[in-house]
Amino acid sequence: MANLKTKVLLTGGAGYIGSHTAKLLTKHGYEVIIIDSLFPSQSKKFYGNFYKLDLAEEEKVLEVLRKEKPEIVLHFAAFISVPESIEKPFLYYENNVGNTIKLLSAMKKVGIKNFIFSSSAAVYGIPDIIPVPETAELKPINPYGETKVMVEKILRDMARVKEINYVSLRYFNVAGADPEGELGPTYKQPTHLIIRALKVAKGEIPYLEIYGTDYPTPDGTCIRDYIHVMDLAEAHILAMEYLLSKRENLVLNCGYGRGFSVREVVSTVKKVTGVDFKVIETSRRPGDPPILIADNTKIKEILKWRPKYNSLEDIIKDTWQWELKQNEN
Ligand code: UDP
């Protein structure tokens, strides 16, 4: 049973995954505190007590932790674009690794030991086994994935000497929006496939590029495991409750264990929106593994995670509803 007064601090709680998790935490009766720089994306709606702060502002973060004394920190704040990480590697190491170290250091000073980390399937690079289990070798092929491996190593080593208790959630391709229509993806310049395709359907972007049609997959385009953001939010709550009651460290894949190609996503977006938009096949984008599908046996067994939104069509429908609402103002 969850302690209804448990105080939870979310970095990046106004961002895409953080805002959905904050809403679900609030529904479950948790007290939510948010630290967010409101860059590069933001939700217009916040669930919880909000502090506008960048994690680089170490002293101010420390002040908030001292004042609020949360029992656990959920660390969402990070840069998330694979192509951008290739263009601007230092920016990614500085924010995703450097600022995480600052946060961990502030937590140590205040004596907060429980931590949920937003990791990524990008840690696997091009996996040898599909679906990929958590035990697979970590061999990222882009700086974004490297930053996630680095933080996981820091957490593993700190946990070994009991400096921290943590769950690292390795997200596969997160998509979808709050089915109640309050929250959704808020990126100013989205790079992700589903959102870009929907913006093309809406006429905000002139055409969709398919990056590479010569991959070793049945239709030549990359395959990904798309997971609904609400199922991911639920995984955070289960992970948190597990950590707080058992104090055992975990590394878990968050995906459905099935994949869709870029072409399959494009045809589902056309079907859901009813718009036959323009698609251009171009060359491969650097840093993209051909296939990423989660082996989710562990999260289902240990956390009893039972996804409720496992349908590509529903993921796209919820995101489409959200996109359409953004024009209403
Ligand atoms: N993709 C694409 N066109 C786009 C955006 C993405 O063909 O406009 C492809 C991309 O190359 C990858 C897949 O869609 O194979 C998923 O990319 P996304 O950026 O959504 O997520 P990632 O897997 O990089 O985290």
TrEMBL record:
Question: What Gene3D superfamilies does the annotation carry?
Answer: NAD(P)-binding Rossmann-like Domain, UDP-galactose 4-epimerase, domain 1
Any one GO molecular-function label of the UniProt entry: UDP-glucose 4-epimerase activity
**UniProt keywords, alphabetically:** Carbohydrate metabolism, Isomerase, NAD
According to its UniProt entry, the protein's GO biological process terms are: galactose catabolic process via UDP-galactose, Leloir pathway
Q: Which Pfam families match?
A: Epimerase (PF01370)
- The catalytic activity of this protein is classed by the Enzyme Commission as 5.1.3.2
Subunit field text: Homodimer.
Q: What is this protein called?
A: UDP-glucose 4-epimerase
- Its source organism is Thermodesulfobacterium geofontis
